Amino acid sequence: MTQERSVPPGGRGERLNTRAAGVIALAVLCSRVLGLVRWMVFGALFGGGRLMDVYITAFRIPNLLRDLVAEGALSTAFVTTFSKTLLREGEQSAWQLANKVLTLAVIALSVVVLLGIVLAPWLVALLGWGFSPAKAALTVELTRIMYPFILIVSLAALVMGMLNARNVFGMPAMASSFFNLATIIAGAGLGWWLDPHFGPKATVGLALGTLIGGLAQLGVQLPSLRRFGYRFRPDLRWRDPGVKAILLIMGPSVIAASSVQVNVVVNSAFASLMGNGPITWLSYAFRLMQFPLGMFGVALGTVALPMLARMAASGNHTGFRSELARGMRMVFVMTVPAAVGLIVLAGPIVSVLYQHGRFSAADAAETAAALRFYALGLCGYAALKVLVNAFYAIDRRKTPMMVSLGAMGLNLLLCWLLTVRLHWGPKGLALSTACVATANFLVLYGLMRHHLGRLESRAMLAMLAKLGLACGALALICWGGSHWLLGNWALERFWPKLGALMAVIVTGAGAFFGIAMLLGIDEVREITFAVRRKLHAR
After folding, report:
1. Is 356 left (phi over 0), alpha (psi -120 to 50) or beta?
2. Quick one: CA torsion of 402, 406, 409, 412, rounded to 10 degrees?
């Protein structure tokens, strides 16, 4: 189990805690690995066609609200306000604010759950334009089963925010691992019990397993919160400055984050018109892209939000600017090589991970093609996790909202152009997602630089130039390995293919870090020294 200790929130002397980010990265690594296992198991049992399209679409509907509310607007607004309350007014006021927000969340989201169950047929029609009546009916059934998931994970996200504000990061980050583990065991077990042949009835087991996983994600965090002396007491006194501040932040934040959700709806609707399979291929590819995104972008963004909020509240503008620039450089150091690896090795990676059971070589090839295009937007996606939180920390919450509205229009245009006009199919939808994420980041970076006066852009460009040289060596090794060592990877047996892939990845990573160290990239040295200290401490 990851060990952590609470550190009292500070002010001017703070730096972005790379150790805490490392704890989160390791915890998220565990979660992402279990998440990959979850989709590997489900793909092997159900294949890459109709039934997985149904489950993914049904899960996507409450999951969109989770991303929008629980782990998006609500979480960001709550952590920002809770951290400032803790710093300015003390622990007792912060716990009282938490009681008010938790009570409000339970009541409001219970209403959302009931509405979602009633409106499920219309919601499915929105995401699955091209579904047949039978496919749509099964999707509606699974959606209604899984809709309480939004309430469960919203509470889990609020508990996570309370712990993060107290500088406890390990267990909250590990919570999603328990979600994945419980979903795998309960989903596969209940699916087999309902239908040993894993036909349509077995997908009901997956839906029930998802709810059980959500309860596990919430439950494992509660002991850590109790150790701080927190006890939940319902509180309906919502006419409170803290609650008002959270709602004011949430409004623009919901609109800003909704652009991503609208983009997902648009992409899902276009994919549903392409027959059985594209929804699954795109979902599996996007989850692989989220692997480094969650490890690096989410980890740094999670640590940065309360720290940047406290710096902004204490008036430490120089430290705010310096740590924001440093956080984005750290993101690029970790995601640029990851993007290069995913693009060059997409085929072997997808084949090793997903090509099992009913998930065919053709499914793997389509998933790999989508992954290459998704990976083009990895760096932009990850940097946004830090940059958007910085805007919220300085109370410029309308800026990401306005930029995201433009991103919605750009995504719709690109989806139509790449799929309807150019007939790129699922690959076009993946490319549209990458282009929108990159454009969103570039616009917000320019606006933040204008607001702060400077953002250490020269240091960023110098670092990127050196990073390009190191990534060139990485790309060359990955390309050579995929052609000579892996051979015809689509037809290779699993264990030889896995061994060859790991050899290529380790060799490429070693070359990248070696060249980066020789070129004097400070962020790579910092990561390397942090790992060495961790190993020596053990």
Report:
1. beta
2. -100
Q: What would the two tokens of residue 503 be?
A: 């050899």
Chain position carrying tokens 């060799």: 507
- Please check whether residue 486 is in contact with residue 348, taking contact to mean a CB–CB distance below 8 angstroms: yes
Alpha-carbon dihedral angle through residues 233, 236, 238, 243, given to the nearest 10 degrees = 30
pLDDT over 90 for what percent of the chain?
39
Of 228, 238, 267, 218, the C-alpha closest to 70 is: 218
Phi-psi region of 395 (alpha: psi -120 to 50; beta: other; left: phi over 0): left
Under DSSP, the state recorded for 491 is: T
Q: With CA atoms as reference, report the closest residue to 71 among 140, 155, 2, 143.
A: 155
Q: HSE (CB half, 13 Å, CA atoms) of 243?
A: 17
pLDDT value at residue 90: 81
What gap in Å lies between CA 81 and CA 366, rounded to an integer? 44
Distance CA 153, CA 211 (A): 10
CB neighbours of residue 126 within 10 Å: 13
Whole-angstrom Cα distance, residue 534 to residue 430? 37
Q: DSSP string spanning 40-77?
A: HHHHHHH-SSHHHHHHHHHHHHHHHHIIIIIIIIHHHH
H or E element: which one contains 459? Answer: helix 457-480
Closest residue by Cα to residue 303 from 110, 103, 166: 166
Alpha-carbon distances, residue 267 vs 56, 260, 278, 365, 379 (angstroms): 13, 10, 10, 20, 20
> Closest by alpha carbon to 404, among 388, 389, 419, 390?
388
Q: Would you give the end-to-end CA distance of the chain in angstroms?
A: 14
Q: Which long-range contacts (CB under 8 A, 24 or more apart) does 203-208 make?
A: 203/46, 203/51, 203/54, 203/55, 203/138, 203/142, 204/141, 204/142, 204/145, 206/42, 206/55, 206/142, 207/55, 207/58, 207/59, 207/142, 207/145, 207/146, 208/145
Cα atoms found within 13 Å of the Cα of residue 217, Cβ hemisphere only: 27
Looking at mean pLDDT, say which of 281-290, 430-439, 519-528 comes out highest: 430-439
Structure tokens given for 14:
């703070």
User: Of 447, 167, 454, nearest to 317 (Cα)?
Assistant: 454
Phi first, then psi: give them for residue 357, nearest 5 degrees. Answer: 55, -125
What the block records as the tokens of 298 is 């989410």
CB 153 within 8 A of CB 71: yes
pTM reported for the whole predicted model: 0.80
- Structural tokens at position 36: 């990959």
Kind and range of the H or E run holding 430: helix 426-452
Q: Are 367 and 358 in contact (CB under 8 A)?
A: no
472 pLDDT band, cuts 50/70/90, is: very high
Rounded distance, CA 313 to CA 307, Å? 10
The contacts of residue 447 (CB under 8 Å, 6+ apart) are 399, 403
Return the domain boundaries, the chain.
Answer: 50-252
Do 423 and 275 meet the contact criterion of CB atoms below 8 Å apart? no
